[in-house]
Amino acid sequence: MNVVGGQVSRSNSSMLHKRQNSDNFIDGRWYQSTTFTEDLGSYGGGVHQGSVWSRASSLRKASNGQVSTSELTPSLLDLHSFDTELLREMPKLQEGSLINHPVHGKSFDDLESFLSSAKLVNRSRGLPENNLQKSFSVDKERANNVAKIKVVVRKRPLNKKEVDLTEYVEKHEFVFDAVLNEDVSNNEVYAETVEHIVPLIFNRTKATCFAYGQTGSGKTYTMQPLPLKASQDILTLVNHRYQSQGFQLFVSFFEIYGGKLFDLLNDRKKLCMREDGKQQVCIVGLQEYRVSNVETIKDFIEKGNASRSAGTTGANEESSRSHAILQLCIKKSADGTESRPARVVGKLSFIDLAGSERGADTTNNDKQTRLEGAGINKITCFEGIH
Ligand SMILES: Nc1ncnc2c1ncn2[C@@H]1O[C@H](COP(=O)(O)OP(=O)(O)OP(=O)(O)O)[C@@H](O)[C@H]1O
């Protein structure tokens, strides 16, 4: 693999960090990438058939905590992820209608206080104080796009059916935040991607981790252990650092299959996705469960995984045919007790995307599998979701 720029390698592993170049198909192996985003507000999104969509510039939080307008580097893309809010089912809702509902926890109120207290608007644009209000609506919209993105590529070992085609592979250069070789364990993947984000969700942060890559590249293998490890760490914080502060952990799990939504923790009940007046995506009828011990979470995750739509493709015998979204939500009531309804404080979303499929991977597939593939590739664009 070609590498340019500085590298830092872990003393005890083959992890390589920062500014590395690689192919989607390198050294005869397929790669999948894990992307992690943190967001201060709402989410939108766009991933277009293997490439991450980015904007030319955005507000970005610097290491000193200030936000500045800057060009995005290739390794820090302004990708919107998508977020969901739970909505109780309402019998009179019409298909496709917009609905208003109390947005739990965050959004513009929190963001406004964040922006004004940090004087982000003035600092980032150099405007006089009295222009602050005038420019606020523009900045509010831009600040909603504030995102930190980390893109990590993991290389998997060849399987028995694969041959090493390294010498025939065209070389292309890409830049990632980290590249994890085939001897890196799932625990190390967790440490590299999710672990440091967990404490932030107790502080009004919503974050998304998703795996993206071709069918058979190892997305499910990589993603499946992450929510359980994150839950363990969340519960440790709830029971120790935040003991008696009224934080509660909730889990929900659903999939998008063939353009439809199914609740994986509620007998695959069909769900509706809607957008409210604040462009928040709402999953109507999705069940979420309060969890307070790791065993229960493990059971939920296993149950959800067992309910996922799976099939066989030319490239993967046990291919996920759906996009699966598992959310860990931290809530807290206003007074920290359980007597009042809890509101969302932060959320961690894990998205195991169905594999993007090349035509070459689907030549042996039957009609249903090909239609699934077309649907998967279409939905991967997240059109209509954000
Ligand atoms: N890092 C790894 N080490 C060992 N085996 C791996 C690794 N990554 C993936 N595999 C194996 O490769 C096969 C394909 O992996 P997986 O099902 O996770 O791919 P996928 O990208 O989720 O595919 P699809 O999109 O079709 O669902 C599985 O048998 C899995 O056990």
From TrEMBL:
Residue span, Kinesin motor domain: 148-386
Entry GO CC: microtubule
Residues annotated as binding ATP: G213, Q214, T215, G216, S217, G218, K219, T220
Pfam families named in the record: Kinesin
GO molecular function: ATP binding; microtubule binding; microtubule motor activity
Keyword Nucleotide-binding (UniProt): yes
Family under the similarity heading: Belongs to the TRAFAC class myosin-kinesin ATPase superfamily. Kinesin family. KIN-13 subfamily.
UniProt-recorded name of the protein: Kinesin-like protein
